[in-house]
């Protein structure tokens, strides 16, 4: 009778998973970075009610939050090439779409999805900062952009950080969907290993532990970062002064 | 010299300023008095375009700006010639006292950091906060924060400092310290427009006192003229009410 839990095999899966862990981390890091930029742009369009863009941004946020991530991944993977092919034919471009690796569509889909959530986080954080901060910046002659960059956004970051941490953790776990379009990341590797050996239980326990470990590290990092970013709010700095 | 001509402003079709003319000479301290809702703060905020007036001309030195038509570069120029001290201090919360004062020098004036630091430290010394350079606003009392606010405003060497009720959110016992700093500035010849309820300050420091009510200037003159021989009933009523409620530092 087969053993319920094959410990040596269980342990042997970790090096295999560690090998593809960078793929998972890369998807999360790239998507988070691009989504921050997109989210900030979308948030500013809505806060400053830029005609046209503000409405477009609202529709984007609603759509991206109102449709499953998996659907967005499929749309990105199967839809963008079709769109590009049409544009290619029309404008005579010479890019070879078959050369574009699948992970690019994953970057796009995750940025699209996470950007929408982040835009709301960032928008709320900016609106939470007292209007007087921007007024003070303007009153000494700073441009609105400088005031945003140097005064409002650093404070908004402190407000948004806990929520940003949640988003990163959710994102790391959601990268497990990337295998749906054959990008081999943690979950993909786990399924390959499982299918090869038919020991799914060990493999999925192992992959769960790896995700958990990554998320614990992120939680810790966010806590430390939060302490740093919130320094100006008091206590921590008093002790050093 | 600052000259405001025909300043009008309405919020949602409710007129708040109904045509204000005001001249402030170099080195003058003009105190604007008036009941709340009379448009004093709005007038001040129209000078540096924190609010855009619907109509009127704002002239500071050789710079003349038509409020209705002004574009960003003109507004930027105007803001380089003015600074403001706010009722709620509005210190940059993410910056130390020193950085608060340096910020404009570095980002707006392009002053080198070490020179900006020296100047900022000197300004903070002047307002009596030489020992608090590296404190964040959250670690300073209200009175200290407001003195940083004044240091920040004077560091930019503006042609005029706009004071928007600088002592109204302060505890009574620290009001005096802030007023002392303002008196020092006045003695140094700084041009100041001050919205305040501090009658004692007005009496002692103001070159001119302006009484505003319902979006208009009702009365203007020396402190003595306005306080001792007010011509309008509204002014008399207002003065009676404030002198009755505030224990006036003689």
The N- and C-terminal alpha carbons of chain A lie at a distance of: 68 Å
Q: What's the main sheet of chain A like?
A: none
Q: Looking at the structure, what is the overall shape of chain A?
A: flat
- Total DSSP helices of chain B: 9
The Rg value of chain B, from CA coordinates, equals 18 Å
Largest inter-chain interface?
A: A-B, 25 and 32 residues
Beta content of chain A comes to under 5%
Helix content of chain A: over 70%
Alpha-carbon Rg of chain A, integer = 22 Å
Derived structural class of chain B = alpha/beta
How far apart lie the N and C ends of chain B?
Answer: 31 Å
Order of helices and strands of chain A: HHHHHHHHH
Helix content of chain B: 25-40%
Residue-averaged pLDDT of chain A:
92
Could you give a short account of the major beta sheet of chain B? 6 strands, mixed
Low-confidence stretches of chain B at least 5 residues in length (pLDDT < 50)? none
Average residue pLDDT of chain B? 93
- The helix-strand sequence of chain B is EEEHEEHEHHHEHEHEEHH
What can you tell me about this protein's structure?
The complex is a heterodimer of chains A (241) and B (250). By secondary structure, chain A is mostly helical. Chain A has nine helices and no strands. Chain A has helices at residues 7-47, 53-66, 69-91, 102-128, 131-139, 144-174, 186-197, 200-229, 235-240. In chain A, α2 packs across α4 (102-128), α4 (102-128) crosses α6 and α5 packs antiparallel against α6. The termini of chain A are far apart. The model of chain A is unreliable at 235-241 (pLDDT under 50). Chain B is 40% helix and 24% strand. Chain B has a six-stranded mixed sheet with strand order 6-7-8-3-9-10, with helices on both faces. In chain B, α4 crosses α5 (142-155). The longest helix of chain B has 16 residues, at 172-187. The radius of gyration of chain B is 18 Å and the shape is globular. The two termini of chain B are 31 Å apart. The mean pLDDT of chain B is 93. Chains A and B meet through α5 and α6 of A and α2, β6 and α3 of B.
